[in-house]
Description:
The structure holds two protein chains of two kinds.
Chain A: E1 2-8, H1 14-28, E2 34-41, H2 47-52, E3 58-63, H3 69-79, E4 87-90, H4 94-106, E5 110-115, E6 117-121, E7 124-131, E8 136-142, E9 147-151, E10 167-173, H5 182-200, E11 205-212, H6 216-220, E12 224-228, H7 235-247, E13 251-254, H8 256-260, E14 281-285, H9 291-297, E15 302-307, H10 314-317, E16 320-323, H11 326-362
Parallel strand pairs in A: 1-2, 1-4, 2-3, 3-10, 4-9, 5-9, 12-13, 12-14, 14-15, 15-16
Antiparallel strand pairs in A: 6-7, 7-8
Helix pairs in contact in A: 3-4, 3-5, 7-11
Chain B: E1 2-6, E2 9-11, E3 35-37, H1 39-56, H2 67-73, E4 77-84, H3 89-97, E5 102-107, H4 116-129, E6 134-138, H5 149-157, E7 161-170, E8 176-182, E9 185-191, E10 195-199, H6 212-218, E11 224-225, E12 249-256, E13 264-266, H7 271-294
Parallel strand pairs in B: 1-4, 1-6, 4-5, 5-11, 6-10, 7-10
Antiparallel strand pairs in B: 2-3, 7-8, 8-9
Helix pairs in contact in B: 3-6, 4-5
Amino acid sequence: MExxxxxxxxxxxxxxxxxxxxxxxxxxxxxxxxxxxxxLHDGSIDTDELVSKSPTPEIQLLQIxxxxxxxxxELLEKTEARETADLYLFYGDFAGNELSVRFAHRKTGxxxxxxxxxxxxxxxxxxxxxxxxxxxxxxLEMKKKPWCISLAKGAVEPxxxxxxxxxxxxxxxxxxxxxxxxxxxxEDEAVAGAAAEADAGQSWILSEEFTEEEKTQELEQAxxxxxxxxxxxxxxxxxxxxxxxxxxxxxxxxxxxxxxxGWTPLNRMIGISGAVVRANLCIALxxxxxxxxxxxxxxxxxxxxxxxxxxxxxxKLADVTVIEDAVPFIEALExxxxxxxxxxxxxxxxxDGAQEGIQEDGG
Amino acid sequence: MKILVSAKxxxxxxxxxxxxxxxxxxxxxxxxxxxxxxxxxxxxLEMTLRFADAADGGNRIPVQGDDDQNEKQSSCRLTSFTLGxxxxxxxxxxxxxxxxxxxxxxxxxxxxxxxxxAAAGIISSYVKEHPQDLILMGRQSGLGDNGQTPALTAELxxxxxxxxxSDIQPGDNDTVIVTSKxxxxxxxxxxxxxxxxxxxxxxxxxxxxxxxxxxMKFGKREIESFSYELxxxxxxxxxxxxxxxxxxxxxxxxxxxxxxxxxxxxxEGTPKEKASSLYHSYLKKRLRNIWNTES
Lengths: 363, 295
């Protein structure tokens, strides 16, 4: 089977993309399958660095002026016009989801987004993915090739790429520089022409301004998270939990309902439409346990919940639940930790004193 | 500006008890669950009303049938489009009361859970008959969680698409200011329609409640219906098998995701006693490890 991996090298998440897609290939594809990685790049990230992260030795660098789905799709169509692979794998972010769907349509193939597992069997691809707002898993059989798949966020454990021996075999896009032969040169020119044409075709965007925000990716890599839900009760309560997270050296997250109420910034949202975390410890305060939120935290090693309702769904979904209001609890927890630290410091001081005494006696 | 919002009514899945999650014949019975707007579609509806308020100063008077008359009264013509069953009427009446000019319903034909291509086909055929400047819809909706309909609609209409939209504002000279989310920030674009906008997370975008006066005055207008024909993948394309739909895939199994953990409960004592119990029994060692690793 022939497959392609698409990495958006215009995004700083390129490493996470490469590692998850690499993990997907290692887990679900056979060594007999042959793959090529298509890397989009706009010059903002060093191409040698991008190449070193490619999950496959064979690489196609596709240069664009800036990430714009319409331009990317037209270029992809051109580069994949001569030979169409059986399977196209996209990362599970918003860009990957959109590109997979639109590319599949243009190639008259089939597409599934948010996929957890794939399995090739005879002439079909079987995909497992969460449905019913993450309450159920469905297995769907895909027949129509090419199969285009975008992964579910955090579906697989990232697998670092061993970049040794990676060789770039082809460049295309605005500045096609490597030509294996005349045919490739002609093809490159066509792609470069398409790139320019596609970019010029974006006249529907008259202007744009970008405001940088704290990256969701940092939340996704946090070891310790305090998450506030609507049950926290108010914006002030969420702010109190956020303050506690700074004290406890935790990252602060929120459920969709808390963020939608404007109590916390949207980029703090955890769940299927926000960050998917793999924390060592997650304390969820005032979170009911809706499936969409739990899909964002269930890969965490240990989940502690704080909720006033002993019948809330989260009670069965957490390792341990404290039946209490969020704010009185977090204030008490800060106090308990502070006291414990003071005790430890006193013990250490006493031990040091005793040690010094022994040394003095011995001396 | 002609704006269409495609909005779906879905069951509130959080209301289902554990026993309800037992699929039979690859289906979960959700008929008895309370229904609500799909959360992203709800944001799209409210966003559209705010756009119209900003463009027309909040003095819209909806009309039906005669679009020319509407254009004289307001610069926006709002259409809602819902693919659904008989149970959606109450929701659609609310949209009439909220002064959508056209509230259109397409009757669902069979199981549409995993039919995003079919849904996009239906929406785009309506738009081809009734051209629109902006087409808004939520980025994803249950039960299929397909996340494909906006992008497919854009493809079928041959127009661009912006995803993760969190706000729209009227711009100068029939342009639209679209705010959307990217991986590492927020992008604000001034665009020339037509465009499909896939609405993502948008804070404080719950659908407003119509006034009693507007309910009486506008809520009793007619819900328009739209009829369509579904086209499927041929058996030849699907390797000789029937039932693969235009999507080219078919549901083979459905199972509940079991996320149960130990479920220990600490419910006795003062907040401090409970916090102490949690800290000393479960958190202390873990926190030390985390803090030691980080330092």
